[in-house]
Structure formats: structure tokens, C-alpha cells
Amino acid sequence: MSAALPAVTPLPATHVVWDWNGTIKDDLDDHVNALNATLPALGGDLVDRETYRAKHTVPIPNFYARLLGREITEQDWLASDGAFLDHLRAQPVRIRDGAVELMTTLREAGHTQSLLSLCPHDTLLREVDEAGIGHFFVRVEGRTGASGGTKAAPLAAHLSALGLTGQGHRVLLVGDAVDDADAAHANGAQAVLYTGGLHHPAKLAAAGHPLADTLADAVALGSRLIAQAAHPACV
Known about the structure:
Number of strands: 6
Number of domains: 2
CATH superfamily of the largest domain: HAD superfamily/HAD-like
Shape: globular
Oligomer: single chain
Largest sheet: 6 strands, parallel
Number of helices: 10
């Protein structure tokens, strides 16, 4: 993946909010294996990568309901989510190819970056430290409350902490889920979804959001969309 961003530097300067799981972190197989370690206790069948990606949704309890063919009880959810996260935490952190070069290019071009995830905050901090990429981000924020929610409210708080409330016109969120795009739009920001993550590309396409097959292409497309919004007669 090329990290070059020729002729797409956005005007005005952009703040990129990165998603973690399935986006910067290359962990689809880890998620499938963690799910398969927890589903049998709920009476569910094992899933493959394609089934995982096709049925994955946020909030996550709805994902379990799709797989099990029934609503999941709160007790089931708490037990399975804990087991899932324990399995996931035991896996080594792998960063997607080209991500470091891309984040370096963005920083050198004068743009700022942060990381927002719905995974537990302490887990996120540990994994970012393990990956050695924390210096790219002006803020790293994971979930501190109950699991199973969506990203719209956390993104609003994230942007507020960064002093970007009301400046969504210069914010690009790069994620891999429809919920990422919905959260961005709820906060007046732009979003481009990466098709190589935890969600099936066909599902992302059906939602009608801008898509890209690499992280570099996602940033390039988002840059063009932000520039076009800022100067519609010039793009």
C-alpha cells in the first residue's frame, strides 16, 4: 500500500480519527477465533470469516442475536463478552501493512490524528503501546463504560476533548463499520470505510457510504471529499 497522497491534501487541514479493530489493527482472524471460543457455550455454531463479516453489526449484542437466531440475555452477554475479550487480549498486536507509513505521511503534511475505539480503554492503551504507534495520536480513547454501544456519543465527547466540536467539516473518520460512518455523520464529520476489516464489503456498499480498499485510498478519498465540501467550485 502506498502512503503517498499526491494532489489530495485537504483544505482546510484535516484531523483524522482512526478506528482501531479491523482498521489500523489487522485482527479479523483474531475476532473470528475469539468468537468461536465463546459461541458454543451459548448454543451457537462456529463461524468462518465470511459469515463473521456478513453478519457483524454494532451494537454487538445484535451481532450475537443474528448468529444465535435469538435475543441474547444480559447474563449471556456479560459472560460471552468477557470471555471474548480475554481471548482477544491474548493475541499479539498486528498493525495493517502500510499504516505506519501512511500515518507518518499525514503527520509530515501537517495533519493531526487521533484514535477512537469501542474496545476497553486499558486494552487499547496497552495494544497501542505494544505496537509503538502512540506518538502519532494527539488523543487515544477507548471505551470506559458498559460494552455493547455505538460510537456516536463517544465521538462527540472525543471531538469535544480535542476542541473540534462544531468543526466536523475538517474531520475525517476512517473505520470499517457502518456505525463508524453513522457516528461521523451524527457529528458533522466525513467518513470513509475500509473494506478489508471486520465488515463485509457488500454490507458496507449497501449502506451507501464512501468505501476504499486500502487505508491510503480511504485517506485520499476523504481528503477529496473534505476539499470538495470546502471549495465546491474548485474541485
